[in-house]
Design a protein that fits this description.
By secondary structure, the chain is α+β, with helices and mostly antiparallel strands. It has 2 domains: 323 residues, 3-Layer(aba) Sandwich (Beta-lactamase); 81 residues, no CATH class. 24% of the residues lie in helices and 22% in strands. It has 10 helices and 18 strands. The strands form 4 sheets. The chain has an 8-stranded antiparallel beta sheet with strand order 11-12-13-14-15-16-17-18, with no helix packed on it. The chain has a 6-stranded antiparallel beta sheet with strand order 2-1-10-9-8-7, with helices on both faces. A hairpin with a 4-residue loop joins strand 9 and strand 10. Helix 1 runs antiparallel to helix 9. Keywords: Hydrolase. One of its GO terms (molecular function) is hydrolase activity.
Length: 453
Amino acid sequence: MSLELLPGTRRALLHKLATAQVQGRTPSIVAAVIRDGDVVWSDARGTVNGDVPDGNTQYRIGSITKTFVAVLVLRLRDAGRLSLTDPLSLHLPGVAPDGITIRDLLAHTAGLSSESPGPWWERTPGTLRPDLGGVLGDDPLRHPVGRRFHYSNPGYALLGALVAKLHDEPWGAVLRREILEPLGMTRTTPHPVAPHATGWAVHPWADVLLPEPLQDTGLLSPAGQLWSTTTDLARFASFLLTSPVAQDMRIPSSPSEPTSLDSPYGLGVQLLHRDGRLLAGHTGSMPGFLATVWVSPDDNLGAVVLANTTAGLTVGTLTAELLQIVTSHEPRIPAPWRPLESVDPGVLELAGPWYWGPQGYALRPLADGFVELASLTGKTGIRFRPTASTETWEALNGYFTGEHLRVIRDPAGTVTHLDVGSFVFTRQPYDPASPIPGGVDPTGWQTAPTGLY
């Protein structure tokens, strides 16, 4: 059970939320912070149908829907039903231009148009686009396939159709069975269920409101149809912090645009580097609604903000600022240090200092059975997990991700060096007894001759 936030932290969060609601002239706004899987703070400003909204009040969440769709696609991958490198045409022939892969669609690198042809899909009924041909149009490509990031709502319509095709049922039914019901997200639905907010546009120069139309987007629903609550999205944020699928989603899969180098895109999630942290999640907007979910994996922390306004509130920034308040007021307290309960003698033998050339590293066995190789300069260490061989380990992060650490022994069984993706690590800097690539100068380490250095 996570500890409740301190009063000073709670007041700072409320001040940030209240200020944003006033400055953004937002009819209503509701927010929550999640730490270690629990909602540790929630609050709201404004009213919905005369009442202050709470964690049970539905708002439309727009493109956060895409993150749910991405999870469904990756679950199909994990079940062996598809590969992310598959061309879409392998599963949905004759629908999209040749060469577009499933990964391209997830990462918005397919080169497809941002929107569907015809009237703006978010404010018009989905019946105007009764088939995928109508969603894409006759000329859907805006960039060469795989060349650059270009956000595409029709691309996620294709992914929703892919999920429906491989499950032989509507993608929404698959979503309910595979994600919503297991996570207890009973208030996440394709259409609003009371209590829910009304979507409003606020006049730019006067404090008056205009109701936004509410449409069923049909085949484009995987791009932004869902409604949800802060309570439900807190559960989804916890999933994004803990699920192995979510770890895959956080790997940058498309480049940042030159104007936003701190914001690459993963697989169905936006990524944001802010205050030295990586945030992952998604923003969302539909006429009358704005929404964001951000999680900070390093802090096991998440935040959700939902509002019923079309514009005027930078909801993604606000959500990130709520996280920053918590991390600055209450930095995460590390778990207590404990000795290892067990360690393989062969792994313990590897512990201690190693050198790549003159650069010092330390190898440590970890409680989860992995090992970490960390530079003595304090940079983030590289974690390795064991493979089927007791002498081989696979790197999980950093430069060597996917490469192998191999333990090399002499005929007597003594460890001579470690080989990490062809990088030789030795017990002494440039150990002449080890197979250093290029060899070691036979004169060894030298002092500088007088006047020559």
